[in-house]
Specification:
Oligomer: heterodimer
Number of strands of chain A: 9
Number of strands of chain B: 6
Largest sheet of chain B: 4 strands, mixed
Shape of chain B: elongated
Distance between the termini of chain B: 28 Å
Number of helices of chain A: 9
Order of helices and strands of chain A: EEEHEHEHHHEHEHEEHH
Largest sheet of chain A: 6 strands, mixed
Radius of gyration of chain A: 18 Å
Number of helices of chain B: 14
Helix content of chain A: 25-40%
Shape of chain A: globular
Strand order of the largest sheet of chain A: 5-6-7-3-8-9
Structural class of chain A: alpha/beta
Order of helices and strands of chain B: HHEEHEEHHHHHHEEHHHHH
Amino acid sequence: MFSLKVKNLTKVFKDKKREVIAVNDVSFEISESGVIAFLGPNGAGKTTLLRLILGLIFPDKGEVFVNGVNPFENPVKVRNNIIYLPTEEGIPPKLTPYEYLSFYADVYKVEDKEKRIKESLEKFEILDIANVHMDKLSTGQKQRVRVAKAYVVDRPILFLDEPTLGLDLPSTLLVENFIMEEKKKDKLIILATHIMEQAEYLADKVMIMNNGKIITFDTFENLKNRTKKQKLREIFLDLIKEN
Amino acid sequence: MFQEIFAVLKRDIKSFLRDKRLLFVTVFMPFFTIYIIYSLLGKIFLKTQIDVIKSKKIVAIDNSVPQDILPKNLENVEFIEGIFTEEILTNGKADALIKRYDNVIKVEFLATRKKSTYIAKVLEKKIFDKLKELRSKKLREYGIKDDILKIYVKSENIAPPKRISFYTFNLILSYLVVLFILVGGLQVGIDLTAGEKERKTIEALLSMPIRHLSIGFGKLLVVSFASFISGFVVILSFTLTFKNISVMIGNYGNQTASISFPWRSFILILPILLLIAFMGSALILTLASFAKTYKEAQSYSSLPLIVFILPAIAALFLENYNIFHILIPVMGQILVLRDFLGGKYNALNFVICFISSLFYTFLAIFIFSRFFRANRLISN
C-alpha cells in the first residue's frame, strides 16, 4: 500500500519582470494503484507538480507526503519509491544503454542487477545496441532506453512525463504495453500526456490541470456521465474552456 | 554515501574520458601548447640569434677615436671611417657608431635592432680589453709595476647552463601548471553542471534517491581528476619537449642546455598538484552550480581564474621568498613547485606548503558543500 497526499501546494516562479503561479493551491490524495493521467495544456503546471512531489523544487506554500514522508525533509527516502522519466529527458551521450541502466541499478540498489538489465534490453528490443554510445542512437531507441530504466529499477510509483513524445507507432506500443504491465503489478503510474487517446486507453483516473489549478480529478466513466460527452478530447476541451 | 559518490563518479568519468572536446582541453591542449611555445618559439629564438651573429654588421668609426684602441679583424664586421653623427644609425647605414667625447669612448647603438645591440656589446668588450692592454704597456714603459692596476672587477655567472634554465623556465612552468589545472577543470566543471542542464540530463539524475551533495562530490572528484591530469600533462610535455631540444638561454650568449626534471621532483609535486586541483575544482563547481546556462557558468567560473592568477603572477616576480609567501594560496604552491622542478628541496617549505594547501583545499570543499545546490540547475 502507498499513499500520495498533496495539500494546498503552491509554487510561484518570479523574475524581474513577472510572476507566474505554476501551481496554485493544489490539493489531492491518491491511495490506490492504477494509472492517473495528468492532462492539461502547455504551462498548466503538470511538470512543476511532479517536480514538487519529488522534492526537486521547493514550494512557496503547502505540503506533500509520499507514504507519509515529506519529500522536502527526506527527499532520498521519497525518491527511493519513485522512478521519474522527465519530458524530453536527455541521456548522457557518451554512455552506452548498458552503462546507463547499470548506473540506475547501482543507485537504486537493484538485486539481480545483470539479470534485470538483460531482461529490460530484450523487452525494449535494444539488446543489439546495448554497447553503442547513446549519441549514435535514434530518437526512438533513446526513448526505449529511458523507459527500460523504469523496468530495471522496478519501483512502486512511476512518474512518466510524456513518455511517448516523438516516438513512432511500434515504439509507442512498446511503451504503452509496458505501462499496462506495470499497472497489473499494482503500481501507481502518473502519466502526464497530451495524447487523449492514450489517456483514455491507459488511465483509471484523469486529472485535468489548467493555469496551475486542478479542474477535475475523476474516473473517465464519471467524467463521461457528468459531461455527457463520449470522448476525452471533448471533455478536456469543454472543461478547459469553462476554466 | 560512498556508494552513491562512486556511482556518480563512474558515470561522469566515463563521459569525460569519452568526450573528445574535453580531452582536447584537458590533455592535448596543455601538451601541445607547451610543446609549441617552447619548441617552436625556442627554435625561432635560436635561429634569430644565429642569424644576428652570422649577418654582416657595419660599424662607423668617427675620426675622433684613436686608431690604436680599435679592434681589428672582427668576423662579419665592416668598418667605415669618417666624421659621423647619430644619424648614421637612425638612417640604417651603420649598426654601431664609435665616437670619442673628451675622455669617454662611446659605442652608440639602437636597442630596437638586434644586430646593433649584439655588435655594440662585442665592441665595448673589445675596446675595454684593448685599453687595458695599452695602459699596462705604458706603465711598463715608465717602469711602474702594474700588478694592482691589472686587477679589475668582473661579475661572472658560475651556474651551469642547466641551472640557469631551471630557474627561468621552472618559474614559468609552475605558473603554467596552475593555469592549466584551472583551465582543464573549468571546462569539465561547466560541462558537468550547466552542460548537464543543457543536455537535459540533470533532472533525471537529481530525481534519483541520492543526496545532492553526493552528486556534487562525485562530480568534484571527476573535475579534480581532470584538473590534475592537465597539470601533470604540462609537466610531462615540458620534460619531453626539452629532453632532446637544446635551447638558447637569454643573455648568456650562445650557451645551450637540455632540461630534464629529477624524478624525485615528480613524486614530491604530485600531492601539491592534487591539492591545487581539488581547491580549484571545488570553487569552479560551487560557482557553476549558480549558473542557469553554459555561458553564465563560463562567466561565473572565470572568477576563480582571477583569484588564482593574481597570486600566481605575483609569484613570478619573487626571486626569494619566506614562510609568509608560502602561506599565500597559489603563490606558495607555485614557489615550492618552482624549487622542486629545479631539483632544490627544502623539507620545511614542503611541509608548510602541504599543510597550507590542505587547509585551503578543505576550506574550498567546505564552501562547496555549503553552497553547491544541484537543484539550482532545474529551478528556473
